[in-house]
Amino acid sequence: MASQPPVPRQEIRFCRAPDGVRIAYAVHGSGPPLVVDSCWLSHLQYDWQSPVWRHYLDEWSRGHTVIRFDERGHGLSDRGVTDHGLGARLGDLEAVVDDAGLDTFDLLAMAQGGPVAITYTHRHPERVSRLVFYGSYSGQPDKDPGEAEMNDTLDRLIKVGWARPDSAFRRVFTSLMIPEATEEQHVWLDELQRVATDADTARASRRERLAADASALLAELDVPTLVLHSRGDRMNSFEEARGLAAGIGGARLVALESNNHIVLDTEPAWDVFRAELRAFLQEPVAPRTVQQADQSTSGPADRPTDLDALSPRELEILHHAARGQDNDEIAAALHLSTRTVERHLSNAYAKLDLHGKSARTAAVARLLTRA
């Protein structure tokens, strides 16, 4: 087996979701932020050894700061978690974005991350500059009985064989994800399943993913969107991609000529993937003001001020500061870490050109004057 290239420097951080679950996330690369809404299986450290995933990590960081996380119950995030519902997963993404101190960013939804990314973008339209789906979907309701029977069979396979030393049962999932891979790549993905999570979590999280549905929100999204999907994907049908692209106004669908759910770096489809993604992420996006993105923050009668440069989260934190709350109290009220509150306040002061010990008082004074 060929030796692996050195792992680029990444910083691993932890934040807490609204229900207290610790979520591990990693930051690597430099440039505008690209948040990756994780797929089913991940491990922030182990992924760097991957002959299946490594080329994605390298590609994403060319010109971007990549923020990716292990979902609850997986990788370096808290294990033994029981709630894997859409609401809990949305809270995880919100916690990561806030802890990283991001105002606006591009969002890449991988596979089962689709419903979470859709719901997040619908809830926080001012923060998502561009939206990308890869091998993903909006929801999977009302499947035919044959597919339901297959899912029941896969559930039993996880229960019986996930933790076994041999990979015979896990190979079923590997063969669905990368049917045209080499044996080395198959073996690695077999092992990732065991390393990433336990059998009980794999079953529980998979059931919740099958139930997640955000399709009703698609028509309300107003963000530049790119949909990338393998034409022969056996995990998530290409029809799911058609549904995404048709449901979001202006979305563009790119079919990748591959049978692999995870396109490998030896396929022609990989060159198409990275060329399309690079071009899309470099397209200019018209800036949206706070008034355009969130009318609840600033009504149409408001006159533009320097406060309009602040994000809705920064304004929310300033409102709490105006009530006399200190940073710890604000963090508790908004289910954030104190460090995250401090980062948002620092960003707000910089935008308002305020410095020194009086910055907080001056910022609050401007807020109250505007009100």
Automatic annotation (TrEMBL):
Comp. bias intervals (Polar residues): 289-299
Residue ranges of domain HTH luxR-type in the record: 303-368
Entries under InterPro entries matching the protein: AB_hydrolase, AB_hydrolase_1, AB_hydrolase_fold, Sig_transdc_resp-reg_C-effctor, Tscrpt_reg_LuxR_C, WH-like_DNA-bd_sf
Gene3D superfamilies referenced in this protein's UniProt entry, alphabetically: alpha/beta hydrolase, Winged helix-like DNA-binding domain superfamily/Winged helix DNA-binding domain
Region (Disordered): 286-307
UniProt name for this protein: HTH luxR-type domain-containing protein
Organism: Pedococcus ginsenosidimutans
